[in-house]
Amino acid sequence: MSLESRKTKEGSDHLAAAAKYLETSAWKLKFSPDWDSAADEFNKAAICFKVGRAWEPSKSAHMKAAEAYANSGSLFHAGKQFDQAMLICKEMGLLEEVEDLASRGGLLYRQAGSPESASHMLIRAAKLLEVKHPERAISLYEKAADTVGTEDRPAEAGQHLEQAARLTVRANQYDRAADLLHNTLGMYSEAGAQGSMHGRVVLAFIIVQEQRGDSVAASKVWSQWGGWCDGFQASAATDIVSGFSEQDGDLARRGLDSPAVKALDNDYVKLARDMVVPRGGGVGEEEEELDLC
User: Are 38 and 1 in contact (CB under 8 A)?
Assistant: First the structure.
C-alpha cells in the first residue's frame, strides 16, 4: 500500500473516531458531544489526508475541526483550522474561497484575544489574492488595518491601508482609493510620521485626485501634506498640481513623467503614464492662439 493510500485510510479512521465522540446516548448517560476530543480527531484526519494529498477531504476535516473547537470554546484553535483550510484552497486553486476563510478565521483569532495572528492570516490571504483577485484582497488589507488599529498600532495600520489603496487603483476604483489614501496619511500622522519617508503616499494621492478630475482636492492634498515630500517629490507634485489647475498639459505631463513618480508602485506609475492631461500648453500658449485669431 502506498503512503498516500495508507494515510487516506488513517484519516478515515480518525473521522470515524471523531463521529463516536460526537454521539450522545441516554442509556450511557452521555447527553452532550465531546467536542474537544472530536476536534482533535478531525484535526488528525485533516493532517493525514493532507499527507495523502487528498485535498478535498483534508479541507472538509479542517472545517469540521474548526466547528468542534469553536463549540468546545477553543477559539484560537478554531481560527487555526480556518488558516489551514485556506492553505489547502491554495493547493487546490480555489482562490475564490480564500477571502471568506481568512475573514472567518481572523475573526476567531480576534475573539480569542490574538489580533497578531488575525492580522498575519489576513495579510497572507491578501497576498495570495493580489494578482488574480485584487478586489478581494482590498477588503482583507482593510480588515488587517482595522485589526492592528484597535491595538494602537497606527503605523502598521497605515501600511495595510496603503496596500489596499494601491489595489483599488489597479481596480480603477479611484474614489475608494482617495478615501484609503486619506486614511493612510491620517494613520501615519497619528503614528508621528515626519519628513519624506511617506512623501510617496502624498504624491500618489495627488495623482489619484487628478485622475478623479478634482484639481481642487489635489491642491488641498498638497497644501496639507506637501511638507512630507522630498525635493524630487515636491517638484513633481507642484508640476502636476499646477499643470492641471492652469490647464498646462506640458507641465502636467512633465510632473507625471518625473523620476519621483516612476519610483512609486507600478500601479501608480501605470496610472500616471495613461492619464489624459489638459490640452492647453499654458497661459502663454492660450494667449498666442488668441492673438493669431
Answer: no
Output the pTM of the full model: 0.86
**Is position 246 within any domain?**
yes
Q: What is the pLDDT along the chain (293 residues), one digit of tens a residue?
A: 788 889 999 999 999 999 999 988 766 656 789 999 999 999 999 999 999 999 999 999 999 999 999 999 999 999 999 999 999 999 899 999 999 999 999 999 999 999 999 999 999 999 999 999 999 999 999 999 999 987 888 999 999 999 999 999 999 999 999 999 999 999 999 988 766 679 999 999 999 999 999 999 999 999 999 999 999 999 999 999 999 999 999 999 999 999 999 999 999 999 999 999 998 665 444 444 444 44
The DSSP 8-state label assigned to residue 96 in this structure reads: G
Domain that holds residue 209: 194-281
In a domain, 205, yes or no: yes
Question: Is-contact 35 71, C-beta < 8 A?
Answer: yes
From first CA to last CA, the distance across the chain in angstroms is: 92
Query: Quick check: helix, strand or coil at residue 30?
Result: strand
Is residue 208 domain-resident?
yes
**Best CA proximity match to 237, nearest among 209, 273, 278:** 209
The three cell numbers of residue 236 are 513633481
